[in-house]
């Protein structure tokens, strides 16, 4: 027989799930409409739990594939979120392209050139993916906002990025790889790797068994 504390825990767990379902059912269609008005291209069965921040520069693209999930509501995940998902293109012709069955919680994607995220990619809470430096390292150019270094980012299929990670410009993360929590990725990571740290380094390369069970 459950004690009183177990009953209370059961109640709040059900409340958490019910609140999220209600949040999605009430606001998801409205968020889709707002994204459509802002020129975001969204696939089928995309779910937004809470309102993301979307800033699309003119003549740029933000494309989200089928069956993606992005959590922005403060209590949409058990760890809680301090910020909303953010999708920003900074220049003309810049792109954010997200494949099918991918998603994240409180993630920030900022593209001056292009950020490509593959299929089945999981991005942990509060991680940032930024393909540019925002300000030039040369002090003579820093305040003029010119020639800011930027290079595309590619995250391949089946990648898992832990919480509070930062992925910087010019990076490719190979398929099936795992990036440990709080990592800062400044060099490309080969496929089938487990990598962690600041700077992020490969600690294991493993041949995953991806055959159907």
Task: Tell me about the largest β-sheet.
Answer: 8 strands, mixed
**Bulk shape:** globular
**Helical content class:** 10-25%
Radius of gyration: 19 Å
Can you tell me the number of structural domains?
Answer: 1
CA(first)-CA(last) distance: 37 Å
| Spatial strand arrangement across the major sheet | 2-5-8-11-14-17-19-20
Order of helices and strands: HEEEEEEEEEEEEHEEEEEEEE
The helix count comes to 2
CATH superfamily: Hexapeptide repeat proteins
Compact description:
With 213 residues, this protein is an alpha/beta fold. Helix content is 18%, strand content 29%.
Give descriptors for this structure.
single chain; alpha/beta; 8-stranded mixed sheet; 2 helices; 213 residues; UDP N-Acetylglucosamine Acyltransferase, domain 1; globular; 18% helix; 6-stranded parallel sheet
Would you give an account of this structure?
By secondary structure, this protein is of the alpha/beta class. The chain has one domain: Hexapeptide repeat proteins (UDP N-Acetylglucosamine Acyltransferase, domain 1). Helices cover 18% and strands 29% of the residues. The chain contains two helices and 20 strands. It has helices spanning 4-37, 139-142; strands at 41-42, 47-49, 53-55, 61-64, 69-71, 86-89, 95-98, 103-105, 108-111, 114-117, 122-123, 128-130, 153-155, 160-161, 166-167, 172-173, 178-179, 184-185, 193-196, 201-205. The strands form three sheets. Strands 2-5-8-11-14-17-19-20 form an eight-stranded mixed sheet. The protein has a six-stranded parallel sheet with strand order 1-4-7-10-13-16, with helices on one face. A hairpin with a 4-residue loop joins strand 19 and strand 20. It starts with a helix and ends in an 8-residue tail after the last strand. The mean pLDDT is 89.
